[in-house]
Design goal:
The protein has 17 helices and 17 strands. By secondary structure, it is of the alpha/beta class. The radius of gyration is 27 Å and the shape is globular.
């Protein structure tokens, strides 16, 4: 098995400090792998005082002066803080140690390490290390051989466990704070998160809510959308985008995508608006029910698909020209940019999702809406809590129960700290995929315009050999997914609109050929190359 997470016996780290075994020792080599980021190194937080005490005692025995000793130990501890993660054992788990541990300190380390997952191992020279039978313990020499092995074992499509291991101390601290203050609804973490989200996106107002779907719904409700309104959007997206339009009694008017970006095509959007204004489906496909003459264009709802922001200059110009609101569906693009501005900041309002698989995800459902319009923000805040007015029993409108839980906000605050680095890691994963796959004639890699930066919620390819490639990868234990196998206008939920097959050829072609590869910020280079090489072999095979 290949281990990605190495929990160090504190005695090994003292060997590093005192250069025992020389610069080329297995321990030094394993630590170098940690420093280079090839594996994640961990040390038990409760072991630090012992490390400090033992190091000081050894330096005293070696005749090092007190001042020099304090300086050396201090520099060593700071070095540990830069390169290692700190592992703690939740208090409620300590009961497992009672009566079971031969060595309490070793057993604490083993028990805490066991929560990191199956690709975790303890590095120790002590063959009798008390692991409680919960985790493997190997020597540095033995571990080096596993680090050098080629990729093997299970590959996750999105590895949330890898992220959790890296940010576990921050997560635990945030969650425990919520447990201590007990404000599980609208606690202080909600306000802190809203402020940080607004600052990150670059808007005046951010409101956390219960899901990305409710984020869209809150915005549409604040715009006053209802029966007879036409909202123009893409058919190549998840159903939530158009679902919220129909829930309010309005009508989604679908507009085809631009084939290279999979986002709303501005030229098709212009034709759709002209068709609506003139009640002429020969200009652009229109719904047959209700009849176009009964529809009034109210807004545009573009989607930043797979993490790539839409062409907002062109879309916003059309919205202004026709007097329409613009609501950005940024459920997949949080962290992406268009001409230097971050996703969520475009139009009159933006909405995002914190579903666990999103670039910034919580551990349940969550979402947020963004706007620079104070009145719009006030309305959305009211709709979010049952149409609340001046107090919880003063209801000035019919609303929703669409609040974000405080615990989810706490988790997002911990994740937000790591998000910029994760976003850069996503860029590196996508670039490596593209470098390997772009020369293959039977595959089309993602296109990112020069003015954009994708958040890479998905890494999606187009190929006429999709079925063969997916089948070959599945046989090798490499997961793939199809987003989306059927455009919305061809789904039963929207059959009443009367759009026939062939109405939106770019969306239908993409649905026929698209598939996505594993994508997350904790992928290793050898994993990326392994997957990409297998895709190439399947794409060029018989």
């Amino acid at each position: 098995m290949r281990f990605h997470h190495i929990v160090f016996d504190p005695n090994l780290l003292l060997n590093v400090l005192f250069r025992r075994g020389g610069a080329a020792s297995p321990t030094q080599a394993l630590v170098e792998r940690v420093v280079k980021g090839e594996v994640t190194g961990w040390i038990s937080a409760h072991s630090l005082p012992a490390v400090q005490r033992l190091a000081t005692r050894q330096l005293d025995a070696d005749g090092v002066s007190r001042d020099e000793s304090e300086q050396m130990v201090g520099e060593f501890l700071r070095w540990l803080c830069r390169h290692f993660q700190f592992l703690s054992l939740p208090g409620e788990e300590s009961k497992e140690l009672v009566g079971a541990a031969k060595n309490i300190e070793e057993a604490q380390i083993a028990l805490a390490a066991s929560f990191l997952g199956e690709d975790t191992c303890i590095a120790t020279d002590n063959r009798e290390f008390d692991t409680l039978g919960k985790i493997q313990a190997l020597s540095p020499q033995e571990l080096l051989s596993t680090v050098q092995r080629p990729v093997e074992g299970k590959i996750d499509f999105i590895d949330l466990r890898a992220q959790q291991r890296v940010i576990l101390p921050a997560l635990e601290q945030r969650v425990r704070t919520v447990f201590r203050h007990g404000q599980f609804i609208q606690g202080p973490e909600i306000r802190e998160l809203e402020q940080k989200l607004a600052e990150y996106v670059g808007v005046q107002h951010a409101l956390c809510c219960s899901s990305g779907t409710d984020a869209l719904l809150l915005a549409l409700m604040a715009f006053g959308v209802g029966p007879g309104d036409a909202i123009l959007t893409t058919p190549f997206t998840f159903i939530a985008t158009a679902e919220v339009i129909s829930l309010l009694g309005a009508t989604p008017v679908f507009v085809d995508i631009e084939p290279r970006t999979f986002n709303l095509d501005p030229s098709a959007l212009e034709r759709a608006l002209c068709a609506l204004r003139n009640n002429d489906p020969s200009i652009h496909p229109l719904p047959r029910n209700p009849v176009p003459a009964a529809l009034k264009p109210r807004g545009i709802l573009p989607v930043d698909l797979f993490g790539l922001p839409a062409d907002f200059d062109s879309i916003a110009a059309l919205a202004d020209q026709h007097g329409l609101f613009l609501l950005e569906d940024a459920a997949q693009s949080f962290g992406g940019t268009y001409k230097g501005r971050r996703a969520g900041s475009f139009g009159h309002a933006g909405a995002t999702s914190f579903f666990p698989a999103k670039p910034l995800g919580c551990y349940g459902d969550g979402g947020a809406v963004f706007t620079n319009d104070g009145e719009l923000a006030r309305k959305m805040a009211s709709f979010r809590v049952h149409g609340q007015g001046s107090d919880k029993y003063d209801n000035v409108r019919i609303g929703l129960n669409a609040r974000c839980d405080t615990l989810q906000a706490a988790i997002l605050l911990a994740k937000l700290e790591a998000f910029p680095a994760e976003l850069e890691a996503r860029q590196a994963v996508a670039q490596e995929y593209t470098r390997i796959l772009s020369a293959c004639p039977s595959i089309r890699t993602p296109f990112v315009p020069s003015e954009c930066k994708s958040a890479w919620a998905q890494y999606s390819l187009l190929s006429d050999r999709r079925a063969a490639i997916q089948s070959a990868l599945k046989a090798l234990g490499i997961p793939t997914a199809v987003y989306y196998p059927r455009p919305l206008h061809l789904q039963s939920a929207f059959s009443g609109l009367g759009y026939p097959k062939g109405s939106f050829p770019a969306s239908e072609d993409a649905a026929r050929r698209i598939f996505s590869l594993p994508m997350h910020p904790y992928m290793k280079e050898d994993q990326i190359r392994h997957i990409a090489d297998r895709v190439l072999a399947a794409a060029t095979g018989p």
